[in-house]
Every structure is written in structure tokens, then in C-alpha cells.
Amino acid sequence: MVTSIKIGEVRSIPGKSVHGTYKVAERAASTIDLPISIIQGRKPGPTLVIIAGEHGCEYSGIVAAVKLARDLRASELSGTVIIVPLANPVAFDARYLFVNPIDQVNPYGAYPGEPGATVTFQIAHKILNDIALKGDAVVHLHGADYNEALVPFNYVPMTGRKEVDEESSRLASCFPVLYHLDALPASKSTSVPPVGTTYAVTADGTLYWEVASRGIPATMVESGKEGKLEEETIMIHYDGLINVMKHMGILAGKAEYQRGVRILKNPVLVANRSAGLFIPKVGYGESVNKGQLLGEIWNFKGKVLERILSPIDGMVVCRINFVAADSYPTQTQPYLFYITQVE
Ligand SMILES: [Zn+2]
Predict the structure, then answer these.
(1) Secondary structure (3-state) at 26
(2) What's the 306 CA to ligand 1 centre distance in angstroms?
(3) How far is the centre of ligand 1, averaged over its atoms, from the C-alpha of 54 (Å)?
(4) What is the pTM of this model?
(5) How do the pLDDT tens digits run along the chain, 343 residues long?
(6) Considering only Cβ atoms within 10 Å of each terminal Cβ, which end of the chain, N or C, has fewer?
(7) CB contact at 8 A, 138 and 241
(8) Going from the N-terminus, what domains does the chain have, and what CATH number goes with each?
(9) Ligand 1 center–CA 144 separation, angstroms
């Protein structure tokens, strides 16, 4: 017996792909609607929820989700796949970095959301409660905003519930990436304490954390580069999701798990104090030592205003590529270097 799933006005039909929109916020003169596809097999099985496009210019995850919604044949599924390819449509339309331009809030850390708060929190509340919690597993697709380039990796929430964490880790292993990051809340973070403009990356407020801490395994994929559509970064999302469906038994076939994964720990964001020209000295994927020069901030006479040093031994997982540097972290330039230890 296949149970019908309803999200707003979009209702699944066994054996069919249903595409529609789900209203997540009402504005004075408009509404915010998320595109949503529900592909349901005729045979019963688990439900996979896929959420992409929380950051409006992270196109590789958005395009992978759209391709998947188009390509999946309901007749081949045992269970249901719910796909939201664009969770932040206002940012997408405005080509806006990191935040929802209406309230300037970054949805990445806005969960569990709040119906009585500003629009990003309203949307987060609906995505979590009306969509994500319908899943037996949740995969969240990110992939470097317009000013970021990164080493592909998966976040794995470490909730302390062994069976949930192990399953989240297996979901992450379905993606062809060489690195998994152990994601912890601030209360359990072992990252270097905030010093000056260096601060810890935590799982607090993320969708994968909120879902996993309620007992639903989840992982978040990071694959993409500077808003570019490169086949390789799109297919990390796409192939990984096909593999997740095989792993869950939604699609027939044997899942292939990535071998030789290395664990990333103690993630830190390194920012700057001075506004100026950001002149990086290391690229993403490079190993760095504690105290090593990562980059400089220059003024317009070419004078070095600030030298940015690595707070730890590790790898540059992600780097900002805009030359224009804000003073101190801001919503649109939260950091310059994202560095982790590599086990
Ligand atoms: Zn992102």
C-alpha cells in the first residue's frame, strides 16, 4: 500500500511524477513559492527528501536536482522522492549571495525556523516541518556561492545517536567525494575558540542538524565552484543521489560506496579586520601550517594593511574569490578562508 504525500496543494500520485509549487510565505504584494516535485513509485518504500538552492547562486546543486526531477521514472521506484530544487527563489532571481535579500538572513543557519519571525525563518520552518520531516532520509545540496570555490565534501551530523550518525555517514559515502566533515553543534565543537576574526563552523541552525537531531539521517553535499556549471561538480550531486536511492532501496541496483574517505575536523572560518583588496596567497585544496600566511589585505597604494595567518595546521577547504574585502565578517563576506584539520 503506497501512502499519498501532500505538501500544500501538491499531492503525490503512485506511478507518476507530480511537479508543482508550494507557498512558503506571503508578502504584501506577492507570495514566495518553492518549486517542488514528488515522484512516487507504485511499490511502497522509503521517502527521500532532497533540498537544494538555499543559496541562490549555488547552481550545481540546483541543476542536479532539476535534472533528477526530470529524469526519474516513477514506474522504476519503490517509495517516494521529494525534490525542492530551489529553497531560496528570491536570492536566485536577484542573483544574491548567501542571504535572502528581503531580510538579509542566511537560510543556512535559520533552522528550525519560526513562523512569527522574518521571511527566511518562516520559510525554514515550512521546509523543515512540512517537507524535510516527511523523509526517512534528507540530503541537502550546497555548492559554493558565486564568490566561493571549494574541495567537494559532505557534512555528516554527529548527534551522538549511534544508529542515526552511522546512517548519515553511509548516506554521505554514497557521494563520490573524498572528504567527510564531522559536523557538531557549538556546545560540542572542539574547533579553536573564536580569536579575533577566526571563528568555528558549527552545525547549529542547519537543516541537516535539525533533521538528524530528530532521528532522521541526513547529509549535506558541498560541490560547486563560483556559480559555474561544470559537469563534474553537477554529477557529484546527481550520481550521489542515484546512489542514495539505491542504498535506500528506492531504486533497484547496488549502491557503490566511496572508499578511502578522509575525515575533516575542527572547521574554522578565517576572516579579516581591514577593508581593502583581498590578495590570497593560498588556494583551496592546499595544505597549510599554523601561522602560515594565507593572504593579505592591501589599500589602494598597494600597502599591506593586514596579514591573514592560518590559526591551525590543516587544509583550505574553501576560499572566497572576491578581491573587494569587507572589514570584519559580514553576511555577504562571512569569511575569507575555510580551513579544517584532516585526519
Ligand atoms: Zn551554500
Answers:
(1) strand
(2) 27
(3) 7
(4) 0.96
(5) 899 999 999 999 999 999 999 999 999 999 999 999 999 999 999 999 999 999 999 999 999 999 999 999 999 999 999 999 999 999 999 999 999 999 999 999 999 999 999 999 999 999 999 999 999 999 999 998 888 899 999 999 999 999 999 999 999 999 999 999 999 998 887 766 656 688 888 999 999 999 999 999 999 999 999 989 999 999 999 999 999 999 999 999 999 999 999 999 999 999 999 999 999 999 999 999 999 999 999 999 999 999 999 999 999 999 999 999 988 778 778 899 999 999 9
(6) N
(7) no
(8) 6-264 (3.40.630.10), 266-342 (2.40.50.100)
(9) 6
**122 C-alpha to center of ligand 1: Å?**
19
H or E stretch at 239: helix 231-248
Distance 44 CA to ligand 1 centre (A): 33
Residue count of the chain, please give it.
343
* Angle (nearest 5°) at CA 113 between 108 and 115: 145
The three cell numbers of residue 238 are 546527481
Distance, CA of 299 to CA of 124 (rounded, Å): 40
> For 225, which DSSP code?
B
User: Distance from the CA of 309 to the center of ligand 1, in angstroms?
Assistant: 24
